[in-house]
Structure formats: C-alpha cells, structure tokens
Write a structure and sequence with these properties.
five-stranded mixed sheet; 326 residues; 37% helix; single chain; 10 helices; globular; 5 strands
Length: 326
C-alpha cells in the first residue's frame, strides 16, 4: 500500500547508483547538536527548497556537494535551479560553504567543504561554530597529503615520495590535472570554446594559475564561458586572452597570524571568500543586496526571480527570533 510522505526528507528519489563521494577533506560536513529528524523538517521552506534540503540531509558525510553532482541525482531540477536553491538554504540558515587553507609555508592547498545543519541556525551560531571547527582542525592536525586541489607548489604525496624532485615532468600516463580537465570541459559546455588536446596542454599553465589563487574549476569554467560572442574565430586565442585578462586577485597564502584565520566562508552564490561576519546568510554584500526585495513591488511581494524569495527570508527571520528567545 502506498504511504503518504509528510516530509520532503522522505520523498527524495532513490538513486540506483551510490551517491558520489568527494575527495578526502572535501564535501558535506554535518553540524553538531541537530534536532532529530521529524515530519516537520523544512516545512516552512518553498517546495523546491524542501525537496533539495530533504535530499541533502540524507547524504552521508563527505558526499559531493557541488551543483553538478546534485543535479545528476535530482532529475526534477537543473544545475541553475539547484544553485539557486542552495543559496536560499544558506539564507535560511541550513548550510555554509567554506574553504580552508591546509599545509605550511609555500606548500598549501585550499580544501572546500559544505557544512550542513538540518536544524536552521542564525549567523552568530554559524560564525562561532566555524571558528570552533577551524581551531579543532588545527589541534587535531588536518592532513594535507590526500588533498589534490590546485597546488601552489607541487608537493610529494604518499604515493610519490620524491622530495628531491619537487617539480617533475608529468608522466605520459598520468591523470590529467584539474586545470586541463576544466579546459577540456569548455567545448562540451559550449561548442564555441572547443579546444583540442594540444590547446588544453598549451593553456594548462594559465588555468592552473587561477586554481592556485583559490578558485575552483566551476568558477573557472563559468568565468571563461560567460558572455560569449556569437562567433569565435579562434577558441584557443579567445580562452588565452580571458585567462590572462580576467585572472582573479591573489589571496594571501597564509592569513596573518593565528591558526583560527585559516578558514574562510565562501559566498554560496558567487564563491567570493571572506570572514563569516562579512558574509551574513552565507552571502557576500553584493549578492546580499541583489537578493534584497525591490522597493517597487507592493508589500509582501518579492522579486519573482529572487533566489532567496520572501518565504525563505520570512523563515529565516522567524528562526532568528526563536533562537534569541531561547
């Protein structure tokens, strides 16, 4: 007999394949002291956000939280809709995206994580929790060997203990670098940017410079493919120019003294990093202003295209009032 589902957490589709896990050090991290699951979870959120929140809540620790992985498992929504829903869930207090610097000196990596809480939290709670988690990581020692995201300087791993050769030439059968794969993906996303294997190898160093500055491959591909002209005569020349002209600013390799400063919150919408207090609701100031309701609509109406609509903001406001009361 069919059973009626009262909670979106129970209605997420069962995947025939195991859900993809992120690389060690990345992915979903659950917040502590959450309330037990119940039929009222996420009921104050809009339908799309309820559905996606229920699915994310059941993912295991370390599950991949990038938009592409989620879209492959949630056929009802595309990547843009899921990205918008994650922004709304950040505003509602259920998640924060962070990046943490691991390693010492010139041998550093950025580790990207998404902290998730079924129980919605306010900005003050998230700021205190992230500082506590960062200090805990410092006390326990965060391993840098498994992390493979865009190195600033090549570091020997346990599988390749060759410290006497810090910058070896890649072996012919070695796996492509994240920079190379991001370039190869451009043509699959838009035929106007189709690059050959030789083109990708020639531009790989420029793309790696972007990743070394703390951005991820999704940010890189979006920046290179945004606002394309109708016709591109030379894709390799066009991409080379964008890689050179639009490279993001370099962030300090090691923030000023104090181990607790090695973690930064990342804007859930655009990926801009910053301190937790500078990103209320997990959004940078420009994105926060963009999500604010316009003054022209009548009271109670928000922008129809707003990624964090009035229902989510009202839910966040009620949440903060309840947290202050307790």
């Amino acid at each position: 007999m069919a059973v009626e589902h009262f909670s979106p957490a129970l209605s997420a589709p069962a995947s025939p394949r195991p859900y993809p896990m992120a690389k060690p050090g990345y992915g979903k991290r659950s917040a502590p002291n959450q309330l037990p699951r119940c039929t009222d979870d996420f009921t104050l959120l809009p339908e799309r956000e309820r559905y996606i929140a229920g699915f994310v809540d059941h993912l295991p620790e370390g599950a991949a939280m990038n938009v592409k992985s989620l879209a492959k498992q949630l056929p009802l929504y595309g990547q843009q809709a899921i990205s918008t829903a994650l922004t709304a869930l950040s505003v509602a207090g259920h998640l924060r995206r962070v990046r943490r610097l691991v390693g010492e000196g010139d041998q550093v990596r950025w580790v990207f994580r998404t902290f998730w809480s079924r129980t919605a939290r306010d900005n003050e709670w998230w700021a205190a929790h992230l500082v506590e988690r960062d200090q805990q990581d410092v006390r326990e020692g965060v391993p840098s060997a498994p992390v493979t995201s865009a190195p600033v300087v090549p570091v020997p791993t346990l599988e390749r203990p060759t410290p006497e050769r810090p910058t070896p030439d890649p072996a012919p059968d070695s796996s492509p670098s994240p920079a190379y794969l991001a370039l190869a993906q451009l043509g699959r996303n838009d035929a106007r940017l189709a690059l050959s294997a030789v083109d990708c190898a020639a531009l790989e160093g420029l793309a790696a410079d972007w990743l070394a500055r703390g951005v991820n491959t999704d940010y890189l591909t979006r920046a290179l493919s945004a606002g394309l002209p109708s016709h591109i005569a030379s894709p390799v020349g066009f991409v080379r120019r964008r890689l050179t002209d639009k490279i993001p600013p370099a962030l300090p390799a090691a923030p000023v003294a104090g181990p607790g400063l090695r973690l930064m919150v990342e804007c859930t919408r655009c990926g801009t990093p910053g301190r937790a207090e500078a990103l209320p609701d997990g959004l940078c100031r420009p994105c926060h202003r963009a999500d604010a309701p316009e003054t022209s609509p009548s009271p109670g109406e928000g922008r129809p295209d707003s990624p964090a609509g009035p229902d989510v903001r009202a839910h966040a406001g009620r949440l903060r009032e309840l947290l202050r009361a307790t």
